[in-house]
Amino acid sequence: MTKAEKTRQFIVEQTAPIFNTKGYAGTSLNDITEATGLTKGSVYGNFANKDEVALAAFDYNAEKMATAINKAMAEQATMAGKLLVYADLYRALLTNTLHQGGCPLLNTATEADDTHPELRKRVLGAILNWKKHLSALVIKGVESAEFNQKVNPEQVALTMIAMIEGAIMVSRLTENESHWDLIMDSLKKNIKQLS
Q: Average model confidence (pLDDT) for the chain?
């Protein structure tokens, strides 16, 4: 890495939790300079504007989440085991051990929906990739006869995404982790019923 690349990476790593917690509109240039210890000129010497920092921070948060999930999935032998990783690993999002501020997809999707088209496009891409990944796991489960042949992979994927993101929203809004547990119990039952 060049010095400029290291500086860009440092800015992204330091600001990613702030964007995830405060959102795009709520994160100021002062927040960015305080988090990095850099001057405004140093920040804008590496990024054209706040938009570029926000996009890079979202990409970083999404990649961090995907890496953790893929690592946990690699340890599972069955397709059901790989799907169940989501029910277990996303709990870390609630306790802020994986991402300060919660799920970056949910946070960013809610804020960027009407206010930031480029950020919305990034979140949409991440959600569609997630759906594609989940669908591929279900297809493999069907092909290997682990799952019932009548299972609809797209329906399973979309239901999982909706349940996970909905559970995060409900449990964070109500500040009641038992809501997360109840919804994840339903998700686990759904996964077990795929066979």
A: 92
